[in-house]
Design brief:
Elements (H helix, E strand, L loop, with lengths): L12 H9 L13 H7 L16 H10 L10 E6 L2 H10 L4 H5 L2 E8 L1 H9 L10 H24 L3 E5 L6 H8 L5 E10 L15 H4 L11 H18 L7 H9 L11 H7 L6
Antiparallel strand pairs: 1-2, 2-4, 3-4
Bound molecules: flavin mononucleotide.
């Protein structure tokens, strides 16, 4: 079922759940949805944008939503850079293996794990921030940045905008750092296109793994029928891919392509060394 913006009338709760899981795997016991839940369930990545500028104040609203996310100990070890300059977006698109939506979208947000502010606070007091040298601090910063970014994405979607995360910036973190003038111990984790979707190339809700494959009660318990459930999900995702002109891609093939060999990491097998070059000791 297609649930793009042009679909009339508005999708029912059952439509949304079926689109999210495929008809056979939609959780029958799910409760009634409210507007926030309907927005979350209707999420879809947008990779085709109109050139329209964003309404005044959009960036500030997205930032307020991002900063409303919880933050570990309220340390707020993240920053974001709003990129609108066409040349800069083009260069960042090159790093990301040329993703045209980066140049199309009027706004490209780059989300940073940022320990540099903590370093500056310490330096201003003639001290050092010893904890910044540890892997744990990077993990805290990356979690905080992810939560903030997803708040911004959900906010954008609630405003009728589309988003596309761009993890491919990690193909070359040093080049991104140079482009954005990042200080030591700040790293771009991912970018995010924000803009109005081109209705002529609207995307659709992509089905997810069924709940029994990802969620357990009380203790970890991979289902006995894991292989069969994965096979069914592969069929659902293949059908989705075919009907959206994306070939016969399923979850298992994507998993192997990305994680089945070091080659699939696209050069990111050198992440530790690349991060160390950016000042993250990762002790
Ligand atoms: C951290 C992260 C990085 C991603 N990087 C890219 C990317 O570089 N290019 C892209 O087109 N999509 C990217 N995506 C979008 C995913 O491909 C997309 O979320 C996934 O296929 C599920 O589709 P959906 O968001 O439409 O439900 C990324 C998503 C996340 C969360």
């Amino acid at each position: 079922m297609s649930l793009t913006a042009s679909t009339k009338p508005a999708p029912t709760d059952a439509d949304l759940l079926q689109a999210r899981y495929g008809a056979a795997a939609a959780p029958a016991a799910a409760g009634k949805l409210n507007d926030v839940l309907r927005n979350l369930l209707a999420h879809r990545t947008v990779r085709a944008y109109l050139p329209d500028a964003l309404p005044a104040g959009t960036l500030e609203t997205l930032l307020a939503a991002a900063q409303s996310a919880p933050s570990s100990s309220n340390l707020q070890l993240w920053s974001v850079i709003a990129v609108e300059e066409p040349g800069r977006k083009a260069r960042l698109s090159q790093v990301a293996g040329v993703q045209p939506h980066i140049e199309q979208a009027p706004l490209f947000l780059v989300w940073l794990a940022d320990l540099s502010r903590a370093d500056r606070v310490a330096a201003a007091r003639g001290r050092t921030m010893e904890g910044c040298a540890y892997l744990e601090s990077f993990v805290v910063a990356a979690i905080d940045a992810g939560l903030a970014a997803q708040n911004a994405a959900a906010a954008a979607e609630s405003m009728g905008l589309g988003t596309c995360y761009v993890g491919a910036l990690r193909n070359d973190p040093e080049r991104v750092a140079a482009e954005l003038g990042l200080p030591p111990r700040a790293m771009a984790l991912f970018g995010m296109c924000v803009g109005r979707e081109d209705p002529a190339r609207a995307s659709d809700i992509k089905p997810r793994l069924p709940q029994p494959l990802v969620a357990f009660r009380e203790r970890y318990a991979a289902p006995q029928a894991e292989v069969e459930l994965v096979a069914k999900y592969d069929e659902t995702l293949s059908a989705f891919s075919r009907s959206h002109g994306m070939g016969d891609v399923n979850w298992t093939s994507r998993l192997f392509a990305r994680m089945g060999s070091v080659k699939g990491l696209n050069g990111r097998d050198r992440m530790r060394a690349m991060m160390q070059a950016l000042g993250f000791e990762l002790r």
